[in-house]
Design brief:
The structure is a homodimer. By secondary structure, chain A is an alpha/beta fold. Chain A contains 11 helices and 12 strands. In chain A, the strands form 2 sheets. In chain A, strands 3-2-1-4-12-11-5 form a 7-stranded mixed sheet, sandwiched between helices.
Amino acid sequence: MKIIVDAFGGDNAPLEIIKGSAQAAKQYNLDILLVGNREIIQTTARQNGISMEHMEIAHCEDIMTMHDDPGAILKEHKNSTMATGLRLLSEGAGDAFVSAGSTGALVMGATFIVKRIKGIKRVALAPVIPTENGGCMLIDCGANVECKPEMLVQFASMGSAYMQQVMQIGSPRVALANNGTEETKGTQLQIDAYSLLSKTELNFTGNIEARDIPFGGADVVVTDGFTGNIILKMYEGVASALLKNIKAIFKSSWLTKLAALACNKPLKAFKKKMDYNEYGGAPLMGVTKPVFKAHGSSNAYAFQHAIRLVADYARTGVTQLVAAQIATQKGMDQE
Amino acid sequence: MKIIVDAFGGDNAPLEIIKGSAQAAKQYNLDILLVGNREIIQTTARQNGISMEHMEIAHCEDIMTMHDDPGAILKEHKNSTMATGLRLLSEGAGDAFVSAGSTGALVMGATFIVKRIKGIKRVALAPVIPTENGGCMLIDCGANVECKPEMLVQFASMGSAYMQQVMQIGSPRVALANNGTEETKGTQLQIDAYSLLSKTELNFTGNIEARDIPFGGADVVVTDGFTGNIILKMYEGVASALLKNIKAIFKSSWLTKLAALACNKPLKAFKKKMDYNEYGGAPLMGVTKPVFKAHGSSNAYAFQHAIRLVADYARTGVTQLVAAQIATQKGMDQE
């Protein structure tokens, strides 16, 4: 399997991206196609003792930055590393594409270069977030700020396919993020989506209150991109504020420093469980081929995991399953 | 100062409500007017050794339950403890009212029995949530699922008045909850509200991402009630899931149990800082007189704090300030 990598996306590119790619190539027995300036990549690898085994380079000089308008990926930056990587994926030069660059540009590029699965209205950004019993896919999480009920149904269906194939959950519990559990709760969007979701063959378990998400109340949490972003960012914020406080407690006296030593092993395991980097980012769902958004702040370790996840995404044939499901769904999806 | 208390609202009524009221009467030197069945209140107090000093009873037999439609407070339950308490407040029998009963009913009752401040479009539910540097008011938090930009501006103004008067913050930083900091972010609601907020004399600091809320990025976070509910419930959920894990870590071996002892004092202080009960609930903003929603699950301790907060709310004259501010605001508020 060959993974195409945007070597110049994210805050720590290219070094951490190249390093993470090399680790992934070795660890998961993958081929990597790095997209970016050949000379810089080769020099960076050489200077940092990174093996280029199982790694090729597709030379390309332009870069999409975080300051560029997402639409620029189709115009002035149509030859950027991100656009080129997506084009290579679309042409079949690899099995999946991953970038730690601008989310907006990646959604735009994936939609127009790799293209949506026939029948899919919108591409969704869908991270798997840590919960008490493993993880749950939050879909959409920022690609579509305003949504229609039909879009939420497609998100539900795509999320369910992913959790089934990639996370191997038999019959994923799909729930709608809402401000209460009763079916009359929410804005018109939630009320209409609830009604549509009830009619699908998904394992729709109804509304979920935000409080129950971290406890693993659902395997797929369906929401519009605005609310999804709020959920994800609250998760990050509360978790990191709390962990900061716990750290401060452990540092407060010699006694608590000793206590920290005693708790070291389970604390590490817990931090790993909660670690965002273990989850590496978010698959883009609804694209004809696997595209994955790695965190902008990815270090080599996080990027290695992002590659593992996108490889799983490609290996398990989720996009084909989604395409097949959408093709058989009739009536509801007529635009 | 006299606080009117719904003695039959909440999961732990009447015992914990009566106990918390008695503690508050003693601790904060307040008079309490308990609304509810006289015989049950007197028997409960006697059987549990609760002093009725500084506590009167307004007899009333009917109760609004969590299963009743909120609108019932104006119809079949117009003589419930909640409705009666609100009426007593409106008639001047006390300075403020607090209930741990149904939020929807309380919002409805406060709006139609105590009434809104002239010019205020909607009553808002606005808890002060714990942050790294004290607390921040989240307004609205569930009273208004769908909002117009002008409503958000009024929420901002009311929240600012509260944080100034009650929490004694000189110039409260007001921010709009959004999915990014740029002024173009969000749905049309956020885009329009941003533009209106920029023109006010409030200390509007722009958009805030959810991630920055727990770190104290703003003193007032303005949002529609749907999003506010998601923010609040994510806060609760993530915090309680994490604390559950930390507890499990401390219990995992004899060594970590010893460590827990060493960390006991700072951990307790931290738990107190994060404790929802310390915050006791949420003021209803925009009502002509102070009305306060205590948590449904309030125990005596939480309810005592709720009474302290509603007393502060009454003492500092926030409602008068909001009324004066709204009266001087012209042009924007014409309906």
